[in-house]
Automatic annotation (TrEMBL):
This is Phosphoribosyl 1,2-cyclic phosphate phosphodiesterase. SUPFAM superfamilies: Metallo-hydrolase/oxidoreductase. Residues 34-225 form the Metallo-beta-lactamase domain. Pfam families: Lactamase_B_2. InterPro entries: Metallo-B-lactamas, RibonucZ/Hydroxyglut_hydro. Gene3D superfamilies: Ribonuclease Z/Hydroxyacylglutathione hydrolase-like.
């Protein structure tokens, strides 16, 4: 299987509009971060999208991706769902509704934000989705076992997702001991890390991630959902402990 980072930035992206810090004005492509999303390609070449934010259209075009077989949604914040309308060309081409897998709470929010996609009589140009409400237990789709990982983002539950011996978690500030059991001794763990310093009420910062790396002991840990406050990629990546790396848009992992 393969995972590609379509975006590794926070809800504002990097560069941030109007910011002139060294990260935002950097010309290094690795310092330019679209909103967080990944594409997982299964062994049968099926495409599993995780989150569909405002940069979805650009991400698909940049990465020459042409299909989405299913989408897993971590939670309902706009930087993770507001790009769903841009799935229309894929839906028109396939003639099929795109299956979305998410919490029941998230499904309700998606219906509220895209009511025209669920109308009894839809406008011909409207998108169409097939909602699947999932719980915190493994499920099979596209010949692939997917294990949800329930984490806390400020005061709401968010799903991360585990495939084989890789787990992807974004927008987390707390992971319970029960859920940590699912994350021990992975080949690859992907965690959000919004900045180096100053505790955040909803996201891990670098010291939190290093502590989790030491506790969970993955072979490799990649940071995502990165803000401009974390620093320049080429400098910060070299200063991380061995085994921890900054992800960047376009990075591919084979697992």
């Amino acid at each position: 299987m393969k995972l590609k980072f379509l975006g590794t930035g926070t809800s504002q992206g990097v560069p941030v509009i109007g910011c002139t810090c060294e990260v935002c004005i950097s010309e290094n492509p690795k310092d330019k971060r679209l909103r967080s999303s990944v594409m997982v390609t299964t062994e049968e070449n099926k495409k599993i999208l995780i989150d569909c934010g405002p940069d979805f259209r650009q991400q698909m075009l940049t990465n020459h991706e042409h299909t989405v077989d299913i989408a897993l949604i971590t939670h309902e914040h706009n930087d993770h769902v507001i790009g769903l309308d841009d799935m229309r060309p894929l839906i028109f081409k396939s003639g099929k509704d795109v299956p979305l897998y998410c919490y029941s709470r998230v499904a309700h929010e998606i219906k509220n934000r895209f009511p025209y996609a669920f109308a009894d009589v839809r406008y011909p140009g409207a998108p169409a989705f097939e909602l699947h409400e999932i719980e915190n237990k493994p499920f099979h789709v596209l010949d692939t076992e997917i294990t949800p990982i329930e984490v806390i983002h400020f005061k709401i539950s968010v799903f991360g997702y585990k495939f084989k011996n890789l787990a992807y978690i974004t927008d987390a500030g707390f992971i319970s001991d029960t859920e940590k059991e699912k994350l021990k001794n992975l080949d690859v763990l992907i965690l959000n890390c919004i900045r180096k310093f100053d505790p955040h009420p909803a996201h891990f910062i670098l010291p939190d991630v290093i502590k989790l790396f030491e506790e969970l002991k993955p072979k490799k840990l990649f940071l995502t959902h990165i803000s401009h406050h974390l620093g320049l990629h080429d400098i910060e990546d070299k200063q991380l402990p061995s085994g921890i790396h900054l992800a960047y848009d376009g990075l591919e992992l084979i697992f």
